[in-house]
Amino acid sequence: MKKLTVELRKEFVQWFQELKYLSDVQILRYIQISHEASSSCAIHTFVDGSKDAYAAVTFLRLEKNDRIEVFLLAAKSRMALLRGATIPRMELQAAVIGARLTNSVVEALVWGNVTTYYWSDSTTVFAWILREENWFVFVGRSKSWWEGPQ
């Protein structure tokens, strides 16, 4: 069995003593906005993908008088498959979960008309979204699956 070094013990004691400061940390989760004020709100969703994972995060941007306030509403992430996941595909997956996340947030807020913005750094995703061809390569295994039961 190894003994703790003096330096490591000192770091641990300092970390342990600083734990008490965590009780001072506050993260506000309640957002109270009147229906009238919702017209000055916008929802911004940021998405990104890499070879290891993809994620989406949704923020509420509120303009009040001469101030802008931003609130984190929701976030979602997923790990990549072990193999076969290309970065463009991961970026598209991020866009998909971002759109779904935004939709669920808008439904939960029960706002009929809210401006939404989607942000991605992938030009490939933008090109794929604008395509009018079938997406069966991405969403299904074969064309017959895409067309449904025969």
TrEMBL record:
Superkingdom of the source species: Eukaryota
Xref: InterPro entries: Retrotrans_Pao
Pfam families in UniProt: Peptidase_A17
Upper taxonomic lineage: Eukaryota, Metazoa, Ecdysozoa, Arthropoda, Chelicerata
UniProt-recorded name of the protein: Integrase_H2C2 domain-containing protein
Protein species of origin: Trichonephila clavipes
